[in-house]
Amino acid sequence: MSSSTTASFHKCFKPNHHHHQHHAFTFAFLHSCFFFFFLLSAPPPACASTFSGNETGDLEKQGDLFPQILRDEAVGRLYQLGKVSDGNGYLERTFLSPASMRAINVIREWMEDAGLRTWVDQMGNVHGRVEGVNPNAEALLIGSHMDTVVDAGMFDGSLGIVSAISALKALKVNGKLEKLKRPVEVIAFCDEEGVRFQTTFLGSGAIAGILPATTLEISDKRYHFGNF
After folding, report:
1. Where is the Peptidase M28 domain (predicted)?
2. pLDDT at 121
3. Which domains does the chain have, with CATH numbers?
4. How many whole angstroms from its chain centre is CA 14?
C-alpha cells in the first residue's frame, strides 16, 4: 500500500475479468443455535487454549471432545480475537489495518491447527481448505468476516469464523476430516462492513467475481499506515 496520506487498495487485488467459474460453490454461515448454547454456558477464559488432538482418546472416553473444542477452546479464541484491535479499550479492526494484519496470522494458525491447508488471497481473505476424498467435487464454503465496525461486538463476524474452524477441528481429532465427501473451505473475509473505504463486501465480492473494477480506485483519507 502506498505510504501517501491517501491509501488506495488498487495494488492489493488484481481484478479477474473472467467471472464464470467452472464449479458452483455454496456459501454457508455457521451461526447455529447449538453453538450459542455452548458459548453462553462457558465462563470467559483467561486465555485461549489449544487442543492438539493428541488427547483424543481420553477426551472421547470422558465424553468431553465436543465441549472442549466447540465450547471452551472456541470461547477462548473469540476472546483472543476480540482483543486484536486498533482501538484502546474497544474493538476496532478495519480492512488492512495493523490489527487486521495480526488477525490474519492468528486465524491462519487456527486453521492449520484444524488440519487445513491455508493461504491468503490477493484481496486479503484468509482461506483454510481440506480436500476430502473427492477433490473434484463441488466445495462447501463456510465462514464470515474478520473486519469490524468501530466499537464492535465480540461475536460479530468472528463467531462464524471460529465456529467453522472448531467444527472441522472436531472432525480432525475424530479422524474424519480427510474422509469428507467433498472439499470444505473456511474463509475469513477481509471486509464486509465497509468502514474504511465506505464500500461493503469487498472480500466476498472479489471471490464471487462481482467486484466492480472501479471499486479498486476508491481512496481512504483517514488512515496512514505506510507500506504493506
Report:
1. 125-208
2. 97
3. 24-48+58-211 (3.40.630.10)
4. 21
pLDDT of residue 170: 95
Shortest CA distance to 200 belongs to which of 84, 95, 82?
95
pLDDT of residue 220: 82
What b/e string do you get for 69-106 counting C-beta neighbours within 10 Å, with b at 16 or more?
bbbbbbbbbbbbbbebbbeeeebbbbbbbebbebbbeb
pTM above 0.85, yes or no: no
CB 190 within 8 A of CB 96: yes
Do 27 and 186 meet the contact criterion of CB atoms below 8 Å apart? no
Q: What is the pLDDT of residue 46?
A: 47
Residue ranges of the alpha helices (H) in the chain?
Answer: 33-41, 56-62, 65-66, 74-82, 98-113, 158-173, 202-208
Sequence-distant (6+) residues with CB within 8 A of 173 are: 51, 53, 56, 59, 65, 69
Please say whether the beta carbons of 140 and 183 come within 8 A.
yes
Where the chain has pLDDT below 70, the residues are: 1-63, 221-228
In whole angstroms, give the CA distance from residue 168 to residue 174. Answer: 10
**For residues 111 and 162, is the Cβ–Cβ distance under 8 A?**
no
CA-to-CA dists, residue 115 to 159, 161, 164, 194, 211, angstroms: 19, 15, 13, 31, 31
Place of cell 468502514: 195
